[in-house]
UniProtKB/TrEMBL annotation:
GO MF annotations in UniProt: leucyl-tRNA--protein transferase activity
Localization terms from the record: Cytoplasm
Keyword Lipid biosynthesis listed: no
Top EC class for this record: transferase
Family of the protein in this entry: Belongs to the L/F-transferase family.
Keyword annotations from UniProtKB, A to Z: Acyltransferase, Cytoplasm, Transferase
Protein name, as recorded: Leucyl/phenylalanyl-tRNA--protein transferase
Record Pfam families: Leu_Phe_trans
Entry-linked NCBIfam families: aat (TIGR00667)
Keyword NADP attached: no
First-listed, main subcellular location of the protein, grouped into a coarse class: cytoplasm
Taxonomic source organism: Arcicella aquatica
Annotated gene: aat
Purpose: Functions in the N-end rule pathway of protein degradation where it conjugates Leu, Phe and, less efficiently, Met from aminoacyl-tRNAs to the N-termini of proteins containing an N-terminal arginine or lysine.
């Protein structure tokens, strides 16, 4: 894995993020707030076209118990993702990262997919959208299946809008259950270059149509 510290002393900006993602790198904060740029080799991606919802999720999808929203509370999703996880008090999502990604959201390049029950957020995820690539960052849930439902509709949005690459950075059990695979950094860079040439609009999707499908 290639890791390097952020070399300048200025705050992380939305422009830094755009440059980083377009060049195959992304930032994470250490416990002391120091930002590091990562370029994993191998890289984890989730093939969009071959994704199928788990059998256990289909009855929940059919009940349509969850409401899906896009970008209704982007910063709130990030802060939920930054909350300590069971058995782990550390987080790589610092205040500096939240501020930079929130600016990117205002520019229309970072997005959240949120799940609600009775107007209460119960899960969600966020990431960055450039060209035909969605760079997945993190997800959370407060109710069982809350994040899985959000991910399912993320895939539906990506399919509908013509995205061709879903980057999930590192392989782990959480992303493996969604069909994540590993490819070499060289292959990732080739796929990234091709996907960046596409023009896809993440937010301009008919959610009501997706939710009824």
């Amino acid at each position: 894995m290639s890791i390097s510290p952020k070399i300048n002393t200025s705050k992380l900006t939305a422009d830094d993020l755009i440059y980083g993602y377009m060049n195959g790198i992304f930032p994470m904060a250490d416990t002391d707030g120091t930002l590091y740029w990562y370029s994993p080799d191998p890289r984890a991606i989730i093939p969009i076209d071959t994704y199928k919802p788990p059998k256990s999720l289909k009855p929940i999808l059919n009940k349509k118990h969850f409401e899906i929203r896009i970008n209704a509370d982007f910063e709130g999703v990030m802060r939920n993702c930054a909350m300590p996880r069971k058995g782990d008090d550390e987080t790589w999502i610092s205040e500096e990262i939240i501020e930079a990604y929130s600016d990117l959201n205002k520019m229309g390049l970072a997005h959240s997919v949120e799940t609600y029950i009775d107007n209460r957020v119960v899960g969600g995820l966020y990431g960055v959208s450039i060209g035909g690539v969605f760079f997945g960052e993190s997800m959370f849930y407060k109710e069982p299946e809350g994040s899985k439902i959000a991910f399912h509709y993320l895939i539906e949005i990506l399919k509908t809008q013509g995205f061709i690459l879903l980057d999930t950075q590192f392989i782990n059990d959480n992303v493996r259950r969604f069909g994540a695979i590993e490819i070499s950094r060289a292959d990732y860079v080739k796929s990234l270059k091709k996907a960046l040439e596409k023009h896809c609009d993440f937010a301009n999707v008919n959610l009501k149509h997706l939710f009824k499908s």
